[in-house]
Amino acid sequence: MNRTPPLATIAAAIRRERDRLGISSAELARRAGIAKSTLSQLEAGTGNPSVETLWAIAVVAGVPFSTLVEPPAPPVRVVRASQRPAIRSEASPFTSALLAACPPGARRDVHVITSEPGDARASDPHSPGTVEHMVVSSGRWNAGPAGEEVDLDPGDYVTFPADRPHTYRALTADASAVLVMEYR
Amino acid sequence: MNRTPPLATIAAAIRRERDRLGISSAELARRAGIAKSTLSQLEAGTGNPSVETLWAIAVVAGVPFSTLVEPPAPPVRVVRASQRPAIRSEASPFTSALLAACPPGARRDVHVITSEPGDARASDPHSPGTVEHMVVSSGRWNAGPAGEEVDLDPGDYVTFPADRPHTYRALTADASAVLVMEYR
DNA sequence: ACCTGTCGTTCGTCAAGCCGAACTCGAGGA
DNA sequence: TCCTCGAGTTCGGCTTGACGAACGACAGGT
Domain HTH cro/C1-type spans what residues (chains A, B) (predicted)? Predict the structure, then answer.
């Protein structure tokens, strides 16, 4: 769930952002309103910056806060249709394994789900911060967090937090959709 | 690009995570290895925590660091097929408007792209932290960051950082794909 | 009523982050 | 060669976050 050390990551991230801006550390410190000595120590990996200090740097770098504390850059990942976890429910209800099959270590998973009317599937909350993306391939669906379900037509896209109960219900025959689960 | 203030957000996030765990502040402090007086001040919105302190809390809460500093929870968003930015290129090359049409304020956008062999589209880097998701609907594609392109078959899914140059090339006729752009 | 345990806050001390100034190093110009 | 300027590091001080202990408030048990 939680990953690598913070301090070295922060130091690298700051250097990376500064390189991207193409400015000196003195200039970055000036823009951020912090002492260049402070910035020097941060880039050296020394110390334990406060949130305000990091925030000031993130603002002038024009990047979200998380860019400075999360690991470097997301890699290129490919999930082959032939390999990925997919479940065809045919005319039967979704199995509970559909969403439970997500490997906990993975950052994202893709499922192709197919369903028939009446196959309502209620999913328990995933780990905090998990977000799902759903693109309807065919048929009509009703899906979303409990109490906030929306009707979806072919081609529609919906995203919602999945760390709370949520459901997928096919409203027409031969309904299918691509489901992307994004773990954090 | 960068959003709301940090301190109040952090205080709210910590309380929220602690509520979710259903434990007392004393217990959370004990697990995190920090003084409960420190945690008390943080939940009160007083002060300016160090990265290490916040990190310790995030670890025991089982959430990524960004959960504590970024705004609350992602909302449910729906992009209708009839409204969303979509371009059919038919037999002609992608127009440069394809990717440039992404509203800068949006957090995510969805495109349905169709292409024919020879229609290579090179995209300039998006803002830092932007990530793209691509699900192939039909045909074969070659896409990805410059130098790291991969071949994709129908149903394949790929995600990659889009803050660097990247390309999409259809390898077969009637190639189509769903493209999700995620801004940060 | 009394004791006991837990909760959350407040206070005094200590360590550490942040700051500004001084310093070293190196490149470019007269 | 000397001077000047900018980049980056190091050094004292001042401020502030983190800690442990003590405090009042409350609930449950005896």
Answer: 14-68
What is the extent of the structural domain holding B40?
7-69
For residue A44, the cross-strand partners are none
- Give me the CATH number covering residue B143: 2.60.120.10
Q: Which amino acid is at A138?
A: S
Considering only CA atoms, name the residue closest to the C1' of nucleotide D10.
Answer: A37
Report yes or no on A80 lying in a domain.
Answer: no
Residue B184 CB-half CA count within 13 A: 20
B51 vs chain A: nearest CA distance in angstroms? 6
Domain assignment present for residue A15? The answer is: yes
Instruction: State the pTM of this model.
Output: 0.58
Share of chain A above pLDDT 70, in %: 68
Residue A145: band (very low, low, confident or very high) from pLDDT cuts 50, 70, 90: confident
Is B51 touching A (CB cutoff 8 A)? yes
Q: Does A24 contact strand C, using a CB cutoff of 7 Å?
A: no
Helix B36-43, helix B25-32: angle, nearest 10? 120
Interchain contact, B63 vs A129, CB within 8 Å:
yes
Residues B95, B114: Cα–Cα separation, whole Å: 11
The Cα of A92 is separated from the nearest Cα of chain B by a number of Å equal to 23
Amino acid A92 CA to nucleotide C10 C1' distance, rounded Å: 61
Report the distance separating Cα B122 and Cα B153, nearest Å: 20
* Mean pLDDT value of segment B70-97: 41
Contact A157/B at CB under 8 A: yes
**pLDDT tens, B142-177?**
988 888 888 888 767 777 888 778 888 989 988 877
| Chain centroid to CA A24 | 33
Measured between CB atoms, does A104 come within 8 Å of chain B? Answer: no
Supply the CATH number for residue B14's domain: 1.10.260.40
Sign (positive or negative) of CA dihedral B34, B38, B39, B42: negative
Query: Chain B closest CA to A157's CA: distance in Å?
Result: 5
Helices marked H in chain B:
7-21, 25-32, 36-43, 51-61, 65-69, 97-100
A54 plus A117 within the same structural domain: no
More confident residue, A135 or B168: B168
